[in-house]
Write a structure and sequence with these properties.
The chain is 35% helix and 20% strand. The model has no long low-confidence stretch (mean pLDDT 97). The two termini are 20 Å apart. Strand 9, helix 11 and strand 10 (311-322) form a beta-alpha-beta unit. The strands form three sheets. The chain has an eight-stranded mixed beta sheet with strand order 7-8-10-9-13-17-14-15, with helices on both faces. The chain has a six-stranded mixed beta sheet with strand order 1-6-5-2-4-3. The chain is built from 18 helices and 17 strands. The protein is of the alpha/beta class.
Length: 517
């Protein structure tokens, strides 16, 4: 269960002893439930000019705990404002709650005086506030193991004050449970969350659930069925605790299936760069290179809890350590993918696309017989995505996906749920960039320069993935078009683009939940 657990309250009757503080997140000083609060906050503003500018703790006898924290939302009506104003305001007040000794607060989100278009922009304001607060409160798995869950995450329940008795707080809890799985998997240090640990966490997270989880641990079997992935893992094989894992998850909703989602997740549990070794301090933070796999596992957790009917979801995760050693794969090698495509290795620090290609090839086979399939690869793939789009998830789709409006739908929902994305286009230059130079191979994995200094550095990997996985045989003009979208979270996967110290954001869990569930 996520911490804190959301509990719905539809009136203030009898709440005085249930909660130890009241949080009012608002663009005004008014509450829908405590009529005298606006005057009290305005009176306090005369004493403390921070009121209305930042979160302030104010004594008040009419609310639970005899104290209110007024959290100003900030401006909401500028052209560039969105629901992240609410998410960030809640996230930033988390430490204030803990420092004030608050352990069981009651939250009201009251956005007053918005016109109809702005009301539509902030339709998910309560969801954003809850998830933002949970983001601010989350502490790494290592801390919880060392010090105890209740010690490092003492706030375990949050009342949601809402007049609608039908408001679904179970949905909020399910989304946060998925995001918590994603943050744990992405943010845990590389020994605890080496490939076997990653697989074990997934098995535990879905134990006795409606998701079927299977794990391939035999590296000979991986060599046979996932040859590109095995090449990345080669230098890790000699260390048993670092050996690769293939994790497959399947959810099948009740009733007739009308949609199938298929996800490949990049789970590089630590990336040394391999033979193209990361130097000058660039290796720090590379235990988070498993954020794509973490995100798809987190999404599956929310799927499991919400149990949507008519939906099938298939996930394949490659949990691999890209180690350096005598057995490390090297540039110029030619390795045949699961799809039978001869891949020339251009750079061993472009390892994520290698394993994704084999995962996608397996999912391609699933998609051939699936009902309305949509395929995705999710990865912390390129620094170029972060340079191009900053803290936004980058989407690169093929023509069948574009015709279906996949990126458009994700963009629209991302704007509403504080998990924004930026659509990008796949162009002919991307396919030309990875074309073979001789008849010795079929495709080039990458150039030998960093993606941040490469023209179209986050777009061309999608072309490689299409070719190496065999998905280019399912383009718009084929007999069986398959919609495919590459999702690069290198800019959105951690807070402030700080891969060494920033908290994992659990992107893109929420945008997929709001788009498909």
């Amino acid at each position: 269960m996520p911490f804190p657990k959301a509990v719905l309250e539809t009136s203030t009757t009898g709440l005085t002893d249930n909660y130890d503080a009241f949080i009012l997140l608002s663009n005004t000083f008014s509450s829908q439930f405590y009529s005298d609060l606006s005057g009290a906050i305005q009176l306090h503003q005369r004493l403390d000019k921070r009121v209305g500018e930042q979160a302030v703790l104010i004594p008040n006898q009419s609310v639970p705990g005899n104290r209110v924290i007024h959290v100003p939302s900030g401006a909401l009506d500028r052209d560039y404002d969105d629901v992240r104003q609410i998410f960030d305001a809640a996230k930033n007040v988390a430490q204030t709650l803990l420092d004030s000794g608050i352990r069981k607060p009651l939250l009201e989100v009251n956005l007053h005086g918005l016109n109809a278009p702005l009301q539509a922009t902030y339709v998910n304001a309560i969801e954003a506030a809850f998830l933002g607060l949970c983001q601010g409160l989350w502490q790494p798995l290592e801390a919880r193991q060392a010090l105890g869950e209740n010690e490092v995450e003492p706030l375990q329940e949050l009342g949601i004050l809402h007049a609608d008795p039908g408001f679904d707080v179970s949905r909020l809890n399910a989304i946060e449970a998925g995001k918590r799985v994603a943050r744990d998997l992405c943010g845990t240090e590389p020994e605890r969350m080496a490939p076997p640990g990653f697989a074990d966490y997934c098995l535990e997270a879905f134990k006795d659930s409606n998701v079927e989880v299977s794990v391939i641990s035999d590296h000979e079997a991986i060599l046979k069925d996932y040859p590109l992935l095995h090449a990345v893992a080669r230098a890790s094989i000699e260390v048993e605790r670092h050996r690769p894992r293939i994790i497959r998850m399947v959810y099948q909703g009740e009733g007739e299936i009308n949609k199938t989602l298929l996800f490949a997740g990049k789970g590089i549990t630590f990336d040394t760069g391999g033979a193209d070794l990361k130097v000058n301090g660039h290796m720090a933070g590379m235990s988070r290179d498993k954020g794509g796999a973490a995100g798809v596992a987190g999404f599956m957790k929310t799927v499991s809890l919400l149990a949507p009917k008519g939906l099938k979801v298939i996930v394949e995760i490659g949990a691999v350590r890209n180690s350096i050693g005598a057995e490390a794969f090297i540039p110029d090698e030619i390795i045949t993918s699961h799809a039978g495509i001869r891949v020339r290795v251009g750079n061993t620090d472009a390892e994520g696309r290698m394993l994704l290609a084999d995962l996608l090839s397996h999912l391609r086979e699933d998609a051939k017989d699936a009902v309305n399939p949509e395929l995705f690869s999710v990865a912390t793939l390129t620094g170029h995505a972060a340079i191009a789009f900053g803290p936004y998830t980058a989407l690169v789709e093929n023509k069948p996906a574009r015709a279906l409006g996949v990126a458009k739908s994700l963009f629209e929902q991302g704007e509403l749920c504080a998990d924004p994305v930026e659509p990008s286009l796949s162009r002919r230059e991307d396919f030309n960039f990875v074309k073979p130079r001789t008849k010795a191979d079929d495709v080039l994995s990458s150039n030998n320069a960093p993606s941040v200094t490469t023209v179209r550095g986050h777009q061309f990997p999608m072309a490689f993935l299409s070719i190496a996985s065999g998905l280019d045989q399912h383009e718009a003009n084929s007999t069986l078009p398959l919609p495919y979208t590459h999702v690069d979270i290198a800019g959105s996967g951690v807070e402030n683009l700080d891969w060494q110290h920033g908290k994992p954001t659990a992107a893109p869990v929420n945008v997929f939940v709001n788009t498909y569930l």
